[in-house]
Design brief:
The structure holds two protein chains of two kinds. Chain A has 26 helices and 18 strands. Chain A is α/β, with parallel strands linked by helices. A five-stranded mixed sheet of chain A has the order 2-1-7-8-9, sandwiched between helices. Chain A has a five-stranded mixed sheet with strand order 11-10-16-17-18. A four-stranded mixed sheet of chain A has the order 4-3-5-6, with helices on one face. In chain A, helix 3 crosses helix 8 and helix 14 packs across helix 15. By secondary structure, chain B is mainly α. Classes of the chains: A alpha/beta, B mainly alpha. The interface between A and B is large, with 87 and 110 residues.
């Protein structure tokens, strides 16, 4: 028994954690295996290995095709996989929380046993209530040796990678607002084995057919890896050569300071803003230190914070709908209810069908105007007063504000206006919308976070307490929230300020020009926001390659091509290294995750990419499948890094440049085992940079 | 006058051009813009210049005693449907311009869509059964190509295959019906079909064809599997193509008008489909499948309406449903977020009563208004409207709106009902005439009360466990796909498998030649015996049996040479049947047939002979192009199956005609053989053309000989298929 448990534990390290698509958060899919060398893990998921898995699971393929006449053109592997997917997708649909009240604990394994009983009267339900017992029983029936079952389990997980990943995430995030089910990776193995056993019984396969045996004709991938290493090195030299050696002497006092997200898309905007006016910009994680769960009326709760945190703070928005929208919502609910009825749906189509034509034509031919028409009825913009923050004490708010201001080094010389600029993406009819939004805000718009941060920083009590921590914000300094819309590249400014608006508009125009020069296929940016036929509203963080943690003067006036995460860091405020530790433990990891997400989606699309978005099929509340039936798709869709066969993302590992002493960084790495693993196994590269020295950190 | 034929023609032309120029994005994008505007401008122009009785007549086949004409009409029904198709397809084309922008295959995709639209337009314009059949088959073939758009994907290929084979069943029934019709009289127009008012067989055969196209209950299995192609295809299919069955039924209205038995059958099939589709839908977990099953139910409703004789209602339904479903498919990406329920789910009797009373009031007012102007609609359909409105109002009231909102919503509903009823009235007056036979009020109310009972059951206990288990059981019992596999396909496969195994044990070239020789000698002996003592029926049945067996075996043959060998036997048996009728005309046909078949088989063989196995290439890089050999192969196989305009199609037609003289059993046996041929061809396509299921595969090589053979095959086939008379004349002149 213990050996089974142990094998499950070891083999489940291969499985990634994948959240439901509504809160798409980029993760390193192989986060639990970073104790291995990077390329060894890449090889583990190569195409060759997948073939191995197939043969491993069914060395009986040949025999199978002779016996089962109705599934001859389908291998036994595909057959069992299909059966499994059907069961799993049905189970996960049960796990979707319909409303926040529906918290009753349901047991996925029991539910599965129940469905077995209802489907087959004669169900040979010899399965035990205890999962491990069941596994043991099935393994012995299939004659799989317990010593070798770990390879077997790994092969199962790799075959059902999407569902396994979702279930792992579900187990590790019991408090999430989307899915709830008591369903573990053990159950996935049990279901697979059960189907295998059924098949074996059906075909009367004798025992020795299911012996795992590894086929060993590995493709030699070293040349692929070498070319990647060469590419990475080339990029690293180029980037390092660009950086200035010394701090430029006199910087004029700027009249506007802006805080952006570290997102690579902010880099373009920051550069152009700085070029246009005396603007000082900073980079900080896009939730600006204020993570919370957001409750909007008639919408699901969203967690507006990085995936590493669980927020206590609750923000509610009292949004008063205009009566038109209110009416529309109620009517929509009525239609939704009617559509589900057996006979009531029949005439509904006749009553509404011909009127739907207007929406049909409007959305297809005049998407922008249609969206504007809709916005006309929904006039209410977000008011700052409408935001109501609960569970956030003044001292907590002060702590978060202090953390942010000291990290980015904005402790003095405040300008009159400080803009806190989150970012969001606008797209229509896009299940992957949250993958384009702010990752630090949990795959949501950064607008509300910026507003909360601005509200807190404008709060007199917070400012008073900040004075106790030696940060004196002048009384005439005002924090303003804004939002960078990354699809059209415009800035929504919260409040009226024509001067700023004009400046932003000029900068954004340049950003758009640069963007369309880089991606000539991105035409009609404005329309892309509202076009329901658009599979690729924007290319997101494509081509990310490096992260620079340091003061802005390091990178000022350098064209970084939108490939770099920029985090502001001022070593002179950080003698103990605490701030750097917190940066390296959170934003650095997030950047690494994003980088790895793109890396694996591009380099190993068969396993880690979501495939062709054009045939995606949404499972409400869970994610997408491809076509009729497939494994749950994880990762990025092919279209977001590929254009007509040309790959837009250069798959390379993240290069991190930290403006700090070698010793400091090394000390931090030695303290944190995970970071140490990442660096020593070359999942990312860290360079230390000081005024006169540049060193690569090698452990 | 005759310019309305330009509509499908320009779509077809643009489609072919787009496929040819699939590598030049600018060019094909311009073409797709052009077709959009050209279609609309042409349509408006046609509306102005033509009148209701515009008609085009083209002689298609005119030999061996049968006159087959292509007739196109542009009446009110065609005008309305063309309008609908133009709008739906315009939106879909525009949508796919952005949707597939990052796909290399976009040009080919747009071209294929345009071809499908062209064939749908042709069906709408069709003026007689034969024209409808031709476009029917064209829809089948072009849809097969479109569904197989990602032809390197096994699932897509399987779905397309399934669709094609089920379609083939309908095709064959349709063809038999046409043969029967021409046997009795040469009718030229749909409206002349009323002379078959008392026939049972012809309308039921046509209805089987309708069932396969419109996904009615036992034949629905192809519909939910077609999601392996980009979303716009699903939208087009569910908004346009699936209505083809309904259109045909509405066109055949003159024949069905008084045929109460058939109408009852139609009604029952429709009703079953509604119930089954909705039960299946409840079990689906992804959006597109839910939509697909919902379409099935809606099509069932449309057929149900046809069954009651309310053709105008069916017409309105298919238009409205087309718009709605197309919209839902295209916006299926936004279904990810589950909407937070606005209502608190405490069902109170009060709400239900209020909803009931209000909806009754609305209907009463609307109905009264119409009765006042002496326009009546059957009570049965008012019942359906009532159910919907009641549910809508109930759903609205549970959100606890203010009184003003309830009033507004009721007014809105009244408006909807009024427009709906007036549309129905307009359609019934100007487009199709109704033949509502359920005039008996008690029958209507009986049907309606059954429906109401169902509705109440689902309304009260939708989420209860019992209903769910019952649904699960129903689904298990009526698992059409697996049971049909078990009943029909598995025995055939086992048989084929065992014969193959036995055959492969002595399958040297020598033995094959021996078998062929034996076959020919036996055939010769049969001929001689046939001339001495008249045993025509017996010999025909022997040959048909040979054909069926050869196809059963070919289905399980994995080697291409074996498949071709069996195909040769199949075609020879068919030729012998033709030769048995030794009067002059079929001899000419027989020669055509034999020459064409020989050419097709030679092309196939020369293509597949040169294969050598090697590692599978990565399809990813090259998937834009279907290479020449593959194209040749697919065209040759399609010719073999009998696509209109080829000699094999005419052969098919004549076979039915000949066998009709003998017995119905032979007719059915021949139809089964043709169906098996389609299955075999699909298998060959899957295994050898698209090279699925094999990790190593065959590389086809084209030699100059193959090119030559292909061109020869194409030209003879087309010439003998389209203008057989010309050749006959030419030969006669030569002699």
């Amino acid at each position: 028994m213990n050996i089974i448990k142990e094998s499950i534990k070891v083999s489940s390290l291969l499985v990634s954690e994948y959240s439901p698509l509504a809160s798409f958060i980029a993760v390193n899919p192989l986060w639990d295996t970073t104790h291995n060398e990077f390329f060894s893990m890449v090889e583990k998921f190569s195409l060759q290995d997948r073939e191995n898995d197939k043969t491993l699971l069914h060395s009986s393929n040949v025999l199978f095709s002779q016996k089962a006449s109705d599934i001859q053109f389908q291998s036994a592997y595909e057959y069992v996989k299909e059966k499994n997917i059907k069961v799993l997708s049905m189970l996960f649909t049960q796990a979707v929380k319909k409303s926040p009240l529906n918290q009753a604990k349901s047991d996925g394994y029991k539910y599965w046993l129940d469905t077995l009983q209802t489907q087959k009267e004669d169900a040979e339900c010899l399965l035990f209530d205890n999962r491990i017992d069941t596994l043991y029983f099935l393994l012995t029936r299939l004659d799989i040796k317990l010593e070798t079952c770990q390879i077997y389990f790994e092969a199962i997980f790799k075959s059902l990678y999407g569902f396994a990943s979702l279930s792992k995430w579900m187990c590790n995030h019991p408090g999430n607002p989307w899915l709830y089910f008591d369903f573990t990776l053990t159950d996935i193995i049990a279901i697979w084995l059960w189907h295998e056993w059924q098949l074996a019984k059906k075909l009367n396969v004798t025992n020795d057919c299911f012996m795992p045996q590894k086929v060993s004709n590995q493709l030699d991938l070293t040349h692929v890896h070498e070319s990647q290493i060469r590419r990475e090195k080339k990029y690293q030299y180029q980037l390092l050569a660009k950086l200035p050696q010394y701090k430029p002497k006199n910087s004029p006092k700027s009249k506007l300071q802006m805080i952006f997200c570290i997102d690579t898309r902010s880099e373009l905007l920051r550069r152009h803003l700085e070029q246009l006016g005396p603007v000082q910009t900073f980079g900080y994680a896009g939730f600006f230190g204020f993570g919370f769960s957001l409750e909007k009326p008639q919408e699901k709760i969203t967690l507006q914070c990085p995936a590493l945190l669980t927020p206590d703070v609750i923000v509610t928005i009292e949004q008063k709908n205009t009566s038109v929208i209110d009416f529309e919502q109620r009517a929509g609910h009525a239609v939704f209810q009617t559509k589900k009825g057996v006979f009531s749906s029949l005439n509904l189509f006749e009553l509404l069908g011909i009127w739907q034509l207007f929406a049909y034509i409007g959305k297809t031919f005049f998407p922008t105007r249609w969206a504007k028409l809709k916005a006309f009825f929904n006039k209410n913009s977000l008011q700052e007063n409408a935001i109501c923050v609960k569970n956030l004490s003044v001292s907590d708010a002060t702590q978060a504000a202090w953390q942010m201001l000291t990290t980015i080094g904005l402790t003095e010389d405040f300008s009159q206006q400080v803009v806190i600029c989150g970012h969001q993406s606008t797209s229509e009819n896009n299940p992957y919308a949250s993958s384009l939004d702010c990752g630090a805000c949990g795959g949501n718009s950064g607008m509300i976070n910026a507003m909360v941060a601005a509200k807190m920083l404008n709060h007199p009590d917070v400012r008073k307490q900040l004075q106790g921590k030696n940060i004196f914000i002048p009384a005439d300094t005002k924090f303003i929230a804004a939002c960078h819309c990354t699809t059209y590249d415009n800035i929504i400014l919260h409040g009226e300020n024509n001067e700023l608006k004009a400046l932003f508009e000029r900068a954004c125009k340049r950003v758009r020009q640069e963007k369309s020069a880089r991606f000539p296929m991105l035409t009609q940016l404005e329309k892309r926001q509202f076009n329901w036929a658009e599979l690729v509203p924007e290319y997101g963080l494509v081509n990310n390659a490096a992260m620079i943690i340091g003061p802005r003067w390091l990178t000022e006036e350098i064209d970084l091509e939108g490939r770099v995460f920029l985090h502001s860091y001022e070593p002179r405020h950080d003698n103990s290294g605490e701030i750097l530790t917190s940066i390296m433990l959170a934003p650095l990891i997030v950047a690494h995750w994003i980088n790895m997400q793109y890396y694996f989606s591009t380099a190993l699309p068969e396993h880690f990419s979501a495939g062709n978005k054009a045939i995606h099929n949404v499972m409400p509340g869970i994610g997408v499948m491809e076509g009729n039936l497939s494994d749950l798709k994880i990762g990025l869709p092919e279209q977001s890094f590929r254009y007509r066969g040309e790959i837009l993302h250069e798959a390379q590992r993240l290069m991190v440049i930290i403006y700090a002493e070698y010793k400091t960084i090394k000390a931090i790495l030695c303290k944190n085992t995970k970071l140490h693993e990442l660096v020593s196994n070359e999942w990312l590269f860290i360079y230390s940079m000081t005024d006169n020295k540049l060193t690569k950190i090698i452990l | 006058m005759s310019s309305f034929l330009l509509l499908p023609l320009i779509y077809a032309a643009v489609g072919f051009l787009q496929i040819i120029f699939a590598k030049q994005p600018k060019l094909y994008m311009k073409m797709s813009r052009l077709i959009l505007w050209a279609g609309i401008v042409l349509y408006i122009y046609l509306l102005v210049i033509t009148n209701n009785s515009a008609i085009i007549k083209i002689d298609f086949i005119n030999y061996f005693g049968v006159k087959l004409n292509l007739i196109f009409i542009f009446d009110h029904l065609s005008r309305l449907m063309v309008f609908m198709i133009l709008i739906v397809s315009g939106c879909i084309i525009r949508y796919s311009e952005s949707y597939l922008a990052s796909d290399q295959t976009q040009g080919r995709f747009l071209g294929q869509i345009n071809l499908v639209i062209a064939s749908v337009l042709m069906l709408i314009l069709a003026g007689n059964l034969f024209t409808a059949f031709i476009s029917w088959q064209l829809i089948g073939v072009s849809l097969y190509v479109l569904l197989n758009h990602y032809h390197y994907d096994l699932m897509a290929n399987k779905a397309a295959k399934k669709k094609f084979i089920i379609n083939r069943i309908g095709d064959l029934c349709f063809l038999i019906a046409i043969v029967l019709v021409y046997q009795q009289s040469s009718v030229s127009l749909f409206s002349h079909l009323s002379i078959f008012n008392h026939s049972i067989i012809i309308p039921s055969l046509i209805f089987v064809a309708v069932m396969t196209k419109s996904a009615q209950f036992p034949f629905h299995i192809w519909l939910p599997d077609t999601l392996e192609t980009p979303t716009p295809v699903s939208a087009l299919m569910h908004a346009g193509i699936i209505n083809a069955g309904g259109i045909l039924l509405i066109r055949c209205a003159p024949m069905l008008n008084q045929n109460t038995i058939i109408l009852v059958v139609v009604m029952l099939v429709g009703f079953t489909t509604v119930v089954m589709g909705n039960i299946y839908m409840l079990r689906q977990i992804n959006v597109k499948k839910q939509l697909a099953y919902s379409t099935m139910a809606q099509m069932g409703y449309m057929i149900f309406q046809c069954g009651t004789g309310l053709f105008s209602a069916a017409l309105f339904h298919l238009i409205a449903h087309g718009f709605f479903k197309g919209y839902l498919f295209l916006s299926s990406g936004s279904a990810l977020n589950i909407k937070q329920s606005v209502s608190n789910k405490t069902i109170t009797g009060n709400n239900a009563m209020r909803a009931f009373a209000l909806s009754a009031l609305i209907l009463f007012l609307a109905y009264g208004f119409f009765v006042y102007f002496s326009i009546t609609t059957p009570l049965l359909f008012m019942g359906f409207v009532f159910i919907t409105i009641n549910q809508l109002l109930y759903g609205f009231i549970t959100t606890q709106p203010s009184h003003l909102f309830v009033l507004m919503f009721s007014l809105f509903l009244a408006f909807l009902v009024a427009t709906y009823l007036s549309c129905l009235h307009l359609l019934a007056c100007y487009v199709v005439a109704d033949a509502f036979w359920l005039t008996n009020i008690s029958a209507q109310s009986l049907i309606f009360s059954v429906i109401l009972l169902f509705q109440l059951l689902s309304f009260l206990k939708r989420d209860s466990k019992k209903i769910k288990t019952v649904c699960a059981k129903i689904i298990n019992i009526f698992d059409v796909e697996s049971s049909s596999r078990k009943l029909f396909l598995d025995p055939l496969r086992c048989l084929g498998e065992s014969i193959n195994r036995a055959f492969s044990q002595f399958a040297s070239i020598k033995s094959k030649v021996l078998i062929l020789l034996g076959f020919f000698i036996a055939a010769l002996a049969l001929f001689i015996v046939n001339n001495i003592i008249e045993i025509k029926t017996l010999s025909i049945s022997i040959f048909i049996f040979c054909a069926i067996v050869s196809m059963v075996v070919a289905n399980r043959s994995k080697k291409i040479s074996l498949v071709i060998f069996w195909l040769v036997i199949f075609q020879c048996s068919l030729c012998f049947i033709l030769m048995l009728h030794s009067n002059k005309q079929p001899i000419a046909l027989c020669i055509y047939y034999a020459v064409n078949m020989a050419l097709i088989l030679a092309t196939l063989y020369s293509l597949l002979r040169n294969n050598k196995s090697g590692a599978l290439k990565n399809h990813f890089e090259h998937y834009n192009v279907l290479s020449w050999p593959l194209l040749y192969l697919s065209i040759a196989l399609l010719f073999l199956i009998g696509i209109p305009g080829t000699a094999s199609f005419i052969g098919e037609f004549y076979f039915f005609k000949l066998l009709l003289l003998h017995s119905a059993g032979l007719l059915i046996a021949y139809a089964i053989a043709m169906l098996l041929l389609a299955i075999v061809s699909m298998h060959v396509l899957q295994l050898h053309v698209f090279r699925l299921n094999y990790s190593t595969s065959t590389h086809l090589k084209v030699t100059p000989l193959t090119h030559g053979l292909f061109i020869l095959m194409l030209s003879t086939n087309l010439v003998s298929g389209l203008m057989p008379q010309a050749i006959l004349h030419w030969v006669a002149q030569l002699l």
